[in-house]
Amino acid sequence: MLSVRPFRNEDPIRLLELWRYAHRRDTHAPLPALTLEQLQTQILGPPMLDRRSLMIAFEDDRPVGYIHTSFAPDHAGHSFDYSVGQICFLCVDSTYSGASRVATTLIRAGEDYLSGSGAQTIFGGSPSPSVPFYTAFYSGGEAVGILHSDKTVINAFHEANYQVHQATTWFHLDLQNYVPVITAETVGYYGEIEIEINETSRAKTWWEGCTLANGIWFDATASLSRTGRPIARLRTRITYPDTGNMLTMYERTWLASLIELRVHPSFDNKGIKKYLLDELLQYLAAQNQILQIEAHTVDHTPLFTLLRGQSWTERNRGSVFIKNV
Fold first, then answer.
1. Among 229, 209, 206, 173, which residue's Cα sits nearest to residue 79?
2. CB burial class (10 A; 0-12, 13-18, 19+) of residue 297?
3. Fewer Cβ atoms within 10 Å of its own Cβ: the N or the C terminal residue of the chain?
4. Domain that holds residue 127
């Protein structure tokens, strides 16, 4: 008999087991391995976690799936907006014969929890920039939503009358042999544009402190040499999804994720974005332990257009769903 209950302190091992099934399920772009340390610090550790928002489905005594829900941040980022809920992650045991039924049951349980606390709109997958969990595991900074390769979960959202809110793309680039493409336009910027890359503190609100504490942040800024006026900025997050013992982490490789791209309107479509990105990628490639970079972007944004025009690989695609309840 299928049943659903909230998270208990005895459940971390069950969540790790179910994550491995999600890893096997997504053969095109598998999720990275999840350790108990990561589970405790980055999923169960954030202070905005409500154990009732994390629910596990059982067939008798066998765990067959789990759903993780949350609420969106308010406008100031100091509390929750309880009118907007989100299903952050839905994991189903692909070896279970009733996987579709599990997905549908978990979505219904998540909706009941969120709407019972006041949610009028529910997202399937977290829309950027209100992603509360799992960004370090999906690697990119934007919300990838529900991966299209996860057909069981995609179908379950469609059957639950969710509509596509955002289409997303998961990009990847190998930095080990990265060579920037030099053009006449970018050469003309040497001496006219100054590039500055600095480590920066990202957390400025309660929400950011809860969700973005894990990782190192860099801002790459392009400014006019004559006036010092900033005209473009690219934000990057450095994480290590498979971190284990902190004493040995520097023997391993880190992952860079593009988070945000802003360009002054008067300098858009003038090659500034490409020039700034090339300078940032050269800087990251020079760091021997950063061997790859990824980005999740909402389709048809400036960052999406830029990456699609470069040599980035489209690793997977996803959708963020929406439903009014």
1. 206
2. buried
3. N
4. 2-167
Write out the E strands in 100-162. Answer: 121-124, 146-147
For residues 269, 270, 271, 276, the Cα torsion angle rounded to the nearest 10 degrees is -100
User: Which of 132, 167, 202 is at the close of a domain?
Assistant: 167
State whether 158 and 218 are in the same domain: no
Q: Domains in the chain: how many in total?
A: 2
What is the pTM assigned to this prediction?
0.85
| 197-224: pLDDT as tens digits | 988 876 778 888 887 766 788 889 999 9
167, 184, 202 — which closes off a domain? Answer: 167
The two three-digit tokens of residue 101, written as one number: 């039924």
C-alpha 131/C-alpha 259 separation (Å) is 12
Is the residue at 325 inside a domain? no
Handedness of CA 92, 96, 99, 103 (dihedral sign): negative
State the greatest distance between any 2 C-alpha atoms of the chain, in Å, as a whole number: 71
In a shared domain, residues 302 and 190: yes
Taking only the tens place, the pLDDT of each residue in 162-188 is 999 999 998 989 888 777 777 666 667
Q: Specify burial of residue 95 (Cβ count, 10 A radius: 0-12, 13-18, 19+).
A: exposed
